[in-house]
Design brief:
Pathway: Protein modification; protein glycosylation. The chain is of the alpha/beta class. α7 links the parallel β8 and β9. One 2-acetamido-2-deoxy-beta-D-glucopyranose binds next to α10.
Length: 272
């Protein structure tokens, strides 16, 4: 497990993946962002210590103090002897984050979850989908959710504090990104966050998404039925190391473990 300063993980991920290939001028943008992230995120990421436990027998997210978030209760149970383990009957936790602008079409996620709800065979786990963020279209989305009547899928929205955000991302089985970019230059920060927490992603396909989501750490989709199929496929393999889900989990872990700190320093050297 890398000890790289998590704020650097984010800063470098931003630098490399978002702006790295484009222009020197972007460096200051990134640095400004980096120091902002350092202030608001750095310490929090240290709190999220993900256990590289191949058998999934432990919590993937360890809280440093007694605070336990709702996801914990839902996902874990305390065993005899006091150890904490993932519940066998736990739902699949799918997380998406957004600033609720018209750039992201959340009807794709709703439609995919509705397909999952009808198509999901009994052996597939129920899904809890948490959409986090503040923004103009949140109320509209919540109204759309209220119209659905789903039996095996629960959709909730939340505004998470900067402390809870990485904890919840790290607890999720899957992150979903609906980000698109007309410039083709700005990769979704939320995907960097998700992978940075070791969580595989399904990301909406647009021009340069494959620079970030490479088939090893996540999948890309172009429409709701494709996303529904991906969720079904992965849901059937939760907790197993072999197969597609296990591979993606390893890919996401590799993303985390890249020595971004050294990488960032080297990248800065190149621009001196
Ligand atoms: C969704 O995408 C898949 C894969 O690209 C394609 O085969 C399918 O026709 C699409 N479905 C719809 C409804 O557009
Ligand atoms: C940073 O890491 C990436 C991925 O491993 C690599 O392709 C790139 O060359 C590295 N950059 C520097 C400056 O070392």
């Amino acid at each position: 497990m890398s000890d790289a300063n998590p704020s650097c993980v984010l800063a470098v991920a931003l630098f490399e993946r978002v702006f790295g290939k484009t222009a020197y001028a972007h460096l200051c943008v990134t640095n400004a962002m980096a120091s902002d992230l350092r202030g608001s995120w750095g310490v929090r990421y240290l709190w999220t210590r993900l256990l590289a436990d191949p058998q999934f027998s432990s919590l993937r997210v360890v809280l440093p103090d007694s605070r336990q978030d709702a996801a914990d209760t839902l996902l874990t149970s305390r065993q005899k002897g006091g150890t904490v383990a993932l519940r066998k009957d736990r739902p699949m936790l799918v997380v998406s984050s957004t600033s609720w602008t018209a750039d992201e079409d959340f009807s794709i996620l709703l439609e995919a979850l509705a397909i999952y709800d009808t198509a999901a065979a009994a052996h597939l786990p129920p899904v809890v989908a948490l959409v986090t963020g503040k923004g103009p279209l949140r109320g509209f989305f919540e109204a759309e959710v209220a119209k659905l009547s789903l039996s095996r899928v629960k959709i909730v929205t939340a505004w998470l504090s900067a402390e809870d955000y990485p904890l919840v991302l790290g607890s999720a089985d899957l992150g979903v990104s609906l980000h698109t970019s007309s410039s083709g230059l700005d990769l979704p920060m939320k995907v960097v966050d998700m992978l940075g927490c070791g969580t595989p992603v399904c990301a909406f396909r647009f021009s340069c998404i494959d620079e970030l989501v490479d088939g090893q750490n996540g999948l890309v989709f172009g429409n709701a039925s494709e996303l529904a199929l991906q969720i079904q496929d992965l849901a059937g393999q939760l907790g197993r190391l072999d197969g597609r889900y296990g591979q993606l989990l390893q890919g996401a872990a590799q993303f985390r473990e890249t020595d971004w700190d050294a990488n960032y320093t080297r990248a800065l050297e190149l621009f001196k």
